[in-house]
Amino acid sequence: MNNNKIYFLLLSLIISNINNVVNSQQMNLIKANPPPGMMDGNSQQCNGGVSLVFNADFLVDPNLITITAPANAINMVLSNQNQYSLASQIFYFTFDIASNAQNQPSVVSFTYNAGQFNFPNAITVVCNRVNPSDVVVMNVGSVYYYPELSSMIATLRFNFTFEGFPYFNPSLDLSCTIDSNYHCSMVDIGDQNNIDIYIQLLAGYQSISETISASILYRGNSFGHQPIPLQSIYPWNVTNESNLSFFKRFFPPNGTSYVENFAQLASKVTTIQLISSPVKLKSFLIYNTVDADYYSGLKMMANNVDGATYVGGLFGFATVTSSYLLGSSSTKLLDDISLTKTPFALGGATLFASGMTTALNITLAKSRMNVTNTMTYSLTTDINAQIVVTLKYPSSYEPGLFQYTTEVPIPIEFQGNVNILISVPNSFTYYTQSSNIQGTSQFQIYNVEFVKVSTFTSIFRISVYSNFEIVGFRTNNGNYNMYSSNLDTIAQQMFLKIFNTRGDMITIKSDQIYNSNLNVFPNIPLDYKGKLRVANFDYFVFEKSTMDFSKGEFNNTLYFNFTTPYSQALELLFYITALKVDLSILYPTKYNPKTNLFYIDFSVPSNIVNGPVSYLISNNVDYFYSYSLPIPYITISNSIGSMLDPEIQSIKAFQSTSIRMNGDQSFEVGWNVTILDLYNSFTTVSYEITSNIDSLKRFVNTTKTNSFISGNSTHGIYAVRTPFDINCKSQILTISNVVFSNKYETYFPLLSIIGANDEKELTINLTCLSTPDSIAPVIQKFYITPSVNVYSLNRTIEFSLAVSDNDNGSGISKRHLPYILLLSEDGIQLEITTTININVNNTYATYYGVANMPYGFGFRSIVVSVYGLVDNQLNYASYMSSDLLASNFPYNIVRVSQPRYPIIDSGTSLSSGGGTLGLFGRYFGSKSVFNAMIDYKDGAGFKSTPIDFYSGVFLNLSTLTFPKSIDVKVSTGGLDSNILTIVASDYIPPAPTTTPNVTTTPNTKTCPGNPICNNKGKCNLQTLECECIPKWYGPSCASEIIIIPTPTPQPQPTSETTYVYDSKNITSVVEVIAVRELDDIYNVVNEYQISNWTLTIADPKLITIPTYYYQTQLGNTSTTLNVTIEFFSNQTERQFGGQNISISPSSIKFSISIGRYQFQSKTNYLQVVMGATIQGSDGSCSSKSIGSGNDNNVRWIKMNIDKTSLYGRFITYGIIDGNVELIQNMLIEDEETDSSQTRTTKVGITIPNFDDSVLLDPDFSNLIDVNNDSNENEICKSKKKLSDGAIAGIVVGGVVAVAIVIGLILYLKARSKYIKESKRMSSKLKNMDK
């Protein structure tokens, strides 16, 4: 058969304008649009659709339209209809039709009303069939062994292509047969006509050979070609096998019957098998088999010269499996593995629903759900478009019953059923909403088009009308109301649903006629030629094919190029497949113009297994596993060779599994955990604790040293403690998860305890004999930003909340922070977490929150709900919008939509040679009033630049050459957008220079002080910080607090304090200086010098401690920076990131929050630069010390003028996107010259890449030293005596002139610097006195 039939379609013929007049009634078929071409499936039938457009003088009933010919056409079903007028009645039907071996066309005829009107030969359809003889294997690639799948893999190249058959996916129809003792399968790799064959060795084999024969089948039929020979890489040539001795363990014990409790861990509980063998790896393979078609390898997690350790077990939902040892000539059944689970009974859910109309021209659809268990639930309100609200807190609690509530705004015009549902536990209800607004929905689609932008990206445009306002669009491939990314290269067809405020919708599909102009909905444009293939890789070399860890070779570089230009090359990421996916181990591609090569720098952990290591290169569109690439693996030698997780060997409840407390004082409960860590692989561990009635899980984050009780570093007992406040509530607690810092997570760590004797120790029954309290906290005051222009560059919203518990109540819980939920009619929502300002007493608290509202947020209205008001006895309260309205609190934010500033979201990669730059954004406006500008950073500022392609959401600009980076902005109608910085993709930053940290003391592996901590505290060996006993403060517990006056508010976030000690004026200044974006090696790529602060002073009636709020934006970005400065006159306990922080009296705390920021790269950091200065009026000596622990992460700074000092603490974690994560506090060296009277230090709080928000929390105190610690870097005031230098000058004589000139210059520079600093400080002091 001619192969051209596979490549090219026989286009369908259309016969239009078929006229019928019967009994004075007229019905004409004016157009019929069949699919462009179809490919049959396994049933040898094609599934297609046809649009029929009729002109009739009556309303056509689609149920009366049937197919009369051919006989093999079946199942004609109406999909949708649009009857705009009698003259243009459009119907879209789906149908099945059989193929034939000759690919002959089928002529389709229709009839209406049992033959009243006939439409013969209306369309011609070709249902293509591919016969087995048409498919040929053109090439067989090299064979590789892929250890992660215990499979041999080879790539087969066929003669077919996807071109011309948009719905043809041959991998679904291909299968294989293979020699006995083997199993094979065909796997699509999305690489045009390349498909992989996977081969596994079967359990129960008798012998294996050097070569393997495989045959390829298409739909069960052979091609008639010769079998394909494949070289076996299984150990066929091993003639002798030594005795195989094994050490086997199971977590939990094999055959365990697990009964799930309220922590709901069943999905994580599976049986893990650990197998260790001293036999060399090349002589055998190990894998599990679940059934005849599913194979899964035991993953090697440790190896060395003595053998290897594998981890495997039950996979997916399997409850029984078998594991086998596959040797060179025999198979040994190791174990049948089984596990039974009894799920926790969630109980039923009772749903209630109602609606309430407000003055905002919306209806609030209220849903209430009563359940017997507390957890995070998702309530869905379905009005054609689904609005899903995730609820973290109940709205009320009675013994044995939790109530969860949502309130969703729906348009006032909506009419129909409002469906309320929850999937777990399954429940459904609805109410019917009527509207006083009259009318029937009408839709009219004027135009639909795709504009191809690049290989993977197209702009989707639609022009549509409805007599009710359109709410949104939904498609099978996501939301296409902005721009779309073609991630699916097979699913070319698309369907589109359009919703309006009435609650009605229309649906159209690809190839369907959608309007009276007979326009056809286009297919998504695909570009297979632009897709990256394995064959496109040209030069492909690793700097080190073998990495010898004994030589410190932990870093490597991959160099590569392409046979043809590939525009998405810089989007490729490199990843070691043996590791858990983590942002920090996804390595980006860079380009070096000098070598004309792309390269990826990467590193490998020191404890990865020895031997071949696989990798993956991907841009989330194309995935290239190493076995298919020119170099299939990297070889590792002399590593530690163990990726095994630390093993929890025992857990004991502290002090008992049953605890009774009076509730009149705070206390701790917890566990003592015995951990085996042979390779010291973890430094920190996080414990998740779940309660049966507390919806907020507890997280205890510990280090290996600060939780150590006894044992040693490889086998120790560690403490897990969580605090409870007074007036506690009786409840059941259990450890529900453990996360070690080594990041491998081979298995769920609690599996070693489940099924063992200590499983009962996981749960603690806490009985609290507190005075009962059943009244939840209430809101006393509530403020929220009244209106926001959602299309401006400053979309900051703030709110404050005052909450009280009743006078005899249990007290407001400090653990539970309320959150604000913003919702709009289109289902878009924004959750804002609060921070607690101060607990005035146990029954009163104030909270503050700030967020940057997403661009264009909402539809018409933005309503507000408050969740998470909780007291110590876990009485819950929430305020829906209607509750806030009834309490005379603000319940909405006015959504302002004018003027509309354009915004740039992102840009494409661009080299320093210039060329085409693509910009994605929104509201670029009309081209006639649009301008694009580039600042090449050559001193000329922004200049207009040519626009090659323009649309409202995407631009192509022509750019010139530039050395490092450019700034881009756009303007429409005189309104400027944000500024986007584009760093040249081929820019190679200079290697960072390291400056010895001569100021850091102490530089030993212990805490400061002589003796250590001056015998007034305990040394934390992990952080190298002293934990001082009361009264003593500072890094070495050698200082007492100086009581300072309350700092006065400054125009910028600066805290300045002047006090007198020992007849000397001492001034300390702490300030936020700048925010910088750093690349992955800490070079500065953007720096924002902060200005234009907005200052708000907290109402002292609402907040009793002095509190100053500052807010600004970072340059021309839309990122908001908020700084809160608080002064604490008394000792205070605060919570940050789930940890208690003790703030000493007379201290100043900075709380810093940053909103969403557009990073130039996913591997970049953001750094907040803070400066601290202390100055004395007549000091004799100054000194500075830095505490940075074992990890070089700055934890404290201390600067002295004689005995007085400024002491700052920097927490090594922040709250990033709502999660507690480590940050890096870095000492910043600059040209500041310290003197005997002035000391300055700058610290960069460095934050990893984030999506939405960051919270930071440093604090500062002024101290007086009681014990004198030695200071190696003291600078003291010069004494009036003849110095050694003067004597040398007299003796040498002849060289004194030169020495005097140089010395004088240095002196004048230092004095000028000192005078400037003195003037700056004096100016600040004068401002304070005004």
TrEMBL record:
Keywords: Disulfide bond, EGF-like domain, Membrane, Signal, Transmembrane, Transmembrane helix. The chain crosses the membrane at residues 1286-1308. Residues 1003-1038 form the EGF-like domain. InterPro entries: ComC_SSD, DUF7034, DUF7035, EGF. The keyword Transferase does not apply. Disulfide bonds join C1028-C1037. Pfam families: ComC_SSD, DUF7034, DUF7035. The keyword Transmembrane helix applies. It comes from the Eukaryota. Residues 1-24 form the signal peptide. This is EGF-like domain-containing protein.
